[in-house]
Amino acid sequence: MTSFKESSSSSSSSSSSSSSLSSSLYVGIDVAKATLDLARSDELKDVQHFDNDAAGIAEIVEHLRQARPVMIVIESTGGLERPLLAALLDAELPASLVHPGRVRDLARALGILAKTDRIDARVLVLFGQKAEPRLTERASRARTELAELVNCRRQLSMTLVQQTNRRGSTVSVSARRSLDAIIAALEKQIERLDRQIRQLLDADDDFRDLDRILRSVPGVGPTLAATLVAELPELGKADRQPISAVVGVAPFADESGTTIGQRRIRGGRSHVRNVLYMATLAAIRFNPIIKAFAARLAAKGKRKKVVIVAAMRKLLSLLNVMARDRLTWQQLNVVKKLAVAD
Question: What is the domain partition of the chain in residue ranges?
Answer without folding.
Answer: 18-131, 140-203, 216-255+270-342
